Amino acid sequence: MNWINDPNGPMYYNGIYHLFYQYNPKGAVWGNIVWAHSVSKDMVNWEALEPAIYPSESFDINGCWSGSATVLPENKPVIFYTGIDPNQYQVQNYAVPENLSDPYLRKWVKPADNPIVAADETMNKTAFRDPTTAWKIGGHWRMVVASRRKQRGMAYLYRSRDFRKWIKAKHPLHSVPNTGMFECADFFPVSLSGDTGLDNSAFGPNKHVLKVSLDLTRYEYYTIGSYFPEARDKYVVGKGFVDGWNGLRFDYGNFYASKTFFDPSKNRRILWGWTNESDAAQDDAQKGWAGLQAIPRKVWLDPSGKQLLQWPIEEIETLRGQNVQLSNQELKSGEHIEVKGITAAQVDVDITFSIPNLDKAEPFDPSWTNAQDLCGLKGSTVQGGVGPFGLLTLASEKLEEYTPVFFRVFTGLYKHVVLLCSDSGSSSLRKEGLYKPSFAGFVDVDLDDTYKISLRTLIDHSVVESFGAGGKTCITSRVYPLVAVFDDAHLFVFNNGTETITADVKAWSMAKPDKMNN
Description:
Shape: globular
């Protein structure tokens, strides 16, 4: 319980997964931040340990903010983190385990040569934070620190031969005008084919991903491009990628300050994100709902090379229990059919929708460039031709409350345009104080080939995480129903388009982990 935000430096070390995260041990509001520390053998069952680091030295006396972890080739883990010094300047520090023989690495030590990186006089000393996981190519280690120069987002690059003395590169790894402050930057390689992950220091025939969180907008975006370490030590965004506010996102919903790490035990890259809440949910926060880490996801490059794919880690499926299936379920215009026999407040549901006829899809207006605005304009109750169709999650029996997750198909100039929405506008009967947005993203899929599209949604009481078209478009929502809770929550499949849709549904009641961070 209490306030939780950014996942810091997740890592795998000697058979144990470690997750560090920003935490206020004294209350359900931001402040008194320490690096909380939890450990797991499967990323499902977690045990909370004492904080790894907390303000104690001059270089972090006013806060231990976000950072990363790196496991050195000698199998020695190191934490990088941002400390707030007596001048309120943001400086970069490191910490090391006190006892490497302790499998849980409970205690961490801050060496006396901190801070290892401080902003120079040309930089913004109060906007300089969140050091990345380091990588090594040739004789130099490298890391990035996020910042801004006026309204230009900056990813400053630092190099070191010994991992202790760091020198700023002549040029930043990357910078973008008019984005505002970069924070929680993440830079990692991805394989050109297959779903195998790569260590951060891997370099060769692969692509690189640069993700930044945007302090101004409170969402993130990423690009895919090429990294040139020796000649210029620069990252160059690939052709066709939007490098700015309208770029691709890991998640088009309530998902921020994400961090990835390479899992050598299964050769995969894992993505963590913080699903934050609105300030108005503080009543629930006092009860222990304040901020959650989203379900960890495997992430890899789509075969098209145009985006990343994400999918819940396979270990989550160990929580599956009672299974219900609806095969070839016809959904006529205006119908909603309940998926019975499962715990609708805690469920994993995987659906394939078949669309017999695309001829009646609505024409797509090229001015509809903002998916979220379009979802607000054409919600789940606004009849279309092909769609809206999807799920009514966390629904009350008479639909006074529900959170719809749905597709809508349009006829575009060259191919069909697919929109995925997760709309919390009707999620709660609470009249005041809740942030209830309609989140949405376009889905890059060619329906003319298959006439099918899939949706997987994991529901956990106040969290709805959805993965459209095999993880092409992902949306996380935080919702706070009053009626549709526990045994009074229901799950429906629905279709409000004029065209009949067919659904193949698989749903599993989900058990609680044996250890829920206790």
